[in-house]
Design brief:
single chain, about 220 residues, alpha/beta, Rossmann fold, six-stranded mixed sheet, 8 helices, binds 1-O-pyrophosphono-5-O-phosphono-alpha-D-ribofuranose, binds orotic acid
C-alpha cells in the first residue's frame, strides 16, 4: 500500500467518513464498512481531501487538461482537487454540471470552464457506473475527451445485489466500456492491509468481517 492510501484511510477513519458496523449498500448488500464522503464537511477536511485526490492523480502520471465533477458531490471534489493541484504548480480548469437545466441567465447544465482536451472525472465512489456514464456522455458531447476517472474508494466488489453476484465490478466495467483508467486513492485491499497492520486492536477486530465480505462479493 502506498503512503497516500494508508494516510487516506486513517484520515477517513478520523473524520468518521469510513465507519465499521452494518450498512446497507445501494446494491442491497449488508456491508461491514461504509464510506460516506458527504461527511468531509468542513474546510480543513475538504482541503485535506483535495490533497489526497491531487496526490493520487499526479502519482498516476496520467496526462490531463482539466477536471470535471458530476453533481452534486463531485462538484466540491473537483473544486478542492483543482485548488490542491494549483498549490502543486499544476493549475488546471474545472467544470461541473447541474442536475436540473437552468432556464434563465446563462442557462444550460454545464458550469465552469469550457470542456476541452483531456478531462478527468472526479467522484467519490462508483456503484453502478451511472454517474460516470452520464459524465462521459456530457464530455464527449462537448467535443472533449474523457481520459480517466478518479475516485476516493474502490470497494472492489462485483456488480449485482445481495443474492446475484456478477462477474466484474462496476469499476472494471467502466474501464472496459470506455477504455479509460479508474484511479482510486484507496481500495478494499488497502483497507484490509490497514486493518491487518494497525496497532489499534479495537479497529483490528473488523478484519474478519471485511475479509468475509470480500470473499462473498469481492472481485476475483
Ligand atoms: O456509479 P453510480 O451508481 O452512479 O453511483 C455513484 C454515484 O452515486 C452518488 O451520487 P448520486 O448520484 O447519488 O448524487 P449526489 O452526488 O447528488 O449524492 C455518488 O456520489 C456517485 O456520483
Ligand atoms: O455501495 C454503496 O451504496 C456505497 C458504499 C459506500 O461505501 N459508500 C457509498 O457512498 N456508497
Amino acid at each position: 500500500m502506498n503512503s497516500n492510501s494508508f494516510e487516506f484511510i486513517q484520515f477517513s477513519l478520523d473524520a468518521k467518513v469510513l465507519a465499521f458496523g452494518s450498512f446497507k449498500t445501494k446494491a442491497g448488500r449488508m456491508s461491514p464498512y461504509f464510506f460516506n464522503a458527504g461527511d468531509f464537511n468542513d474546510g480543513a477536511r475538504l482541503g485535506a481531501l483535495g490533497e489526497f485526490y491531487a496526490n493520487a492523480l499526479l502519482a498516476s502520471q496520467i496526462e490531463f487538461d482539466m477536471l470535471f465533477g458530476p453533481a452534486y458531490k463531485g462538484i466540491t471534489l473537483a473544486a478542492t482537487t483543482a485548488v490542491a493541484l494549483a498549490k502543486k504548480d499544476k493549475n488546471v480548469p474545472f467544470a461541473y454540471n447541474r442536475k436540473e437545466v437552468k432556464d434563465h441567465g446563462e442557462g444550460g447544465t454545464l458550469v465552469g470552464a469550457k470542456l476541452q482536451g483531456k478531462v478527468v472525472i472526479i467522484d467519490d465512489v462508483i456503484s453502478a457506473g451511472t454517474s460516470v456514464r452520464e459524465s462521459v456522455e456530457m464530455i464527449k458531447k462537448a467535443g472533449a475527451q474523457p481520459c480517466a476517472v478518479l475516485i476516493a474508494l474502490d470497494r472492489m466488489e462485483r456488480s449485482g445485489d445481495a443474492v446475484n453476484v456478477g462477474e466484474f465490478s462496476a469499476v472494471q466495467a467502466v474501464k472496459e466500456e470506455f477504455g479509460i483508467p479508474v484511479i482510486a486513492i484507496a481500495n478494499l485491499q488497502d483497507l484490509l492491509d490497514f486493518l491487518q497492520s494497525t496497532a489499534d486492536t479495537h479497529l483490528q477486530q473488523n478484519l474478519v468481517a471485511v475479509q468475509t465480505y470480500r470473499n462473498t462479493y469481492g472481485i476475483r
